[in-house]
Amino acid sequence: MPERISPFAIAVAASLLAASLSGCGTINEKVSAGMGDYIPQWAGGLPADAPPRPGTAQYDAWMKERERQRLMPAADREAAKSDQGKLDPAR
């Protein structure tokens, strides 16, 4: 005859499960932001054309390039966009 599981054991198991799941939501934001760089795009990671992270040298160069393009006349911007499509995304 099967043995009954006590309601107290079920409550303890449910509490442990809830506590462990809530702990996943409080991971350090720097750790979780960094892990997004290593997750493939097909699994929900960063897209290929995502800008670099703020505070890096690549970000400063990317912002300078954006400002340079913003100050260009519109006719020159179209030519720059076609040339930029041939380059790898800034990472």
Let me know the largest β-sheet: none
| Total beta strands | 0
> Order of helices and strands, N to C?
HHHH
Work out the helix count: 4
Salient structural properties:
4 helices
Description:
- The protein is an all-alpha fold and 91 residues long.
- The chain is 56% helix and 0% strand.
- The protein is built from 4 helices and no strands.
- It has helices at residues 7-24, 29-35, 57-71, 74-84.
- It is rod-shaped.
- The termini are far apart.
- The mean pLDDT is 78.
Produce a short descriptive summary.
The protein is mostly helical. The chain has helices at residues 7-24, 29-35, 57-71, 74-84.
Which secondary structure elements does this structure contain, and how are they paired or packed?
Blueprint: H1 7-24, H2 29-35, H3 57-71, H4 74-84
